[in-house]
Amino acid sequence: MPDIYDFSIETLNGQALPLAGYRGKVLLLVNTACECGFTAQLGALEQLYQRYRDQGLEIIGFPCNQFGGQEPGNASAIGQFCQKNFGVSFALSAKIDVNGANAHPLWRYLAAAKPGLLGSRRIKWNFTKFLIDGEGRIRGRFAPYVKPAALERVIESLLPTSAA
After folding, report:
1. Residue 154 lies in a domain
2. 44 and 149 in contact (C-beta within 8 Å)?
3. Is residue 78 part of a domain?
4. Is residue 161 part of a domain?
5. Do the domain assignments include residue 36?
6. What is the structure's pLDDT at 74?
7. pLDDT over 90 (residue 96)
8. Is 36 a catalytic residue?
9. Which of 23, 69, 92, 95 has a CA between 20 and 30 Å from the CA of residue 127?
């Protein structure tokens, strides 16, 4: 079975981003959408990022249009929306699918490695969150309604003790 560092993603601006470069960092991976009822979580994610990035937290948002067509924009529109409305400075991937035949391999891996409620591998909605420790282990899968601030304690527990 692969590990998290075997995957590479394409950023919103079309650059390759190998996850191997995040080894030793705490990662929070979130499927996002600009027109979702949970979209305000982008601001809360940015606050988490600003608070903990110097201690080893990295966040990557994965725009996805699979849930109610809530991410209809192109890369430019997504980037502008996230920056203008929420000051997003964490990494954003190119728009992806998280379910189905065209699901990004990373998200297939995440869903299989850390099933949701009742063992479901399916991502249920926008703003599902996966928390990965500095050794690449998935430490949690969090439902869309779980606010980013609710993850602070577990994030703090995963950060290097010299940085926390």
Report:
1. no
2. yes
3. yes
4. no
5. no
6. 93
7. yes
8. yes
9. 23
pLDDT > 70 fraction of the chain, expressed in percent and rounded: 94
Q: Of 34, 36, 64, 82, which residue is the catalytic one?
A: 36
Q: Which domain holds residue 58?
A: 9-25+47-141
For position 54, which CATH number holds? 3.40.30.10
Question: Which residue in this structure is represented by tokens 């940015």?
Answer: 46
Total domains in the fold of the chain? 1
Res. 163 pLDDT band, cuts 50 70 90: very low
Q: Strand pairing partners for 85?
A: none
